[in-house]
Amino acid sequence: MPVVKRLVRPVEVNYICDGCSQGMLEHAGEMDAQSGAQEHRCMICDHRQTFFWERYPRIEHVGLDEDLLEETAP
Ligand SMILES: [Zn+2]
Question: How far is the CA of 54 from the centre of ligand 1 (A)?
Answer without folding.
Answer: 18
